[in-house]
Give the backbone structure.
Amino acid sequence: MAERRTVDTSASGSTLGSSKSREGADHGSAQATGSRVPAPAHQEEQDQKEKKEKKPNYVIRKARGIWTTLDLDKPTLMTMFKAACAPTISLAFYQADAVANYFTTLGYLVAIASILAVPIMPRAKFLQNLLFNTIAVCIGAAVALLAIWTGVQARNHTQAAGTPATAYNSSQAAVCAIWLFFEVFLINTIRSARPQLNFTCILTSIFAVVSMTYGPSFPTMAAGISFARRLMVSFL
């Protein structure tokens, strides 16, 4: 009986010890899990916050989509800006009353002439084109004055007495038309022989067309000189 009690006591002691050790292990695991549970949740919140910060807003995503659709790189964009700068300035200063009153209906030619200067070309080519354009505009102004003078003389020799000075005169219109045909033919002949003068010939053609279109409306040479001067200034 004593031996059985001893065995039972030792068994119960071992059972209590094992249960205590289990309770201690469970308590330690609970503490460990308790300390580790908030860590993944905090990390997940931090990851979501980083994703939100990295994710672009709607405007940026839309702008990137448009940019990708246009397929424009930086050098092309800079070249476009360089070419558009001159006509933009030309149209902007036309908003001033002093400029608008001087050029009247010829202000649009300032922007056209600035485009035909072709500022996107290399420096040497640009200076060469600018020199040729200046010489061509001056020659075109001289030819326009000669054509206007002949038109005014045709008006003076064919206009009936008592006719208003600003009335239409068919002889003056015919003279201006002949000059226009002659100038366009000569300019295109030079353009065909010298392709490097392409932009210069286009500029001179515009000068001839505009001057001869307004030519039949000049009753006197003073009006023609004033118009030719404003036209030349707008091109230059």
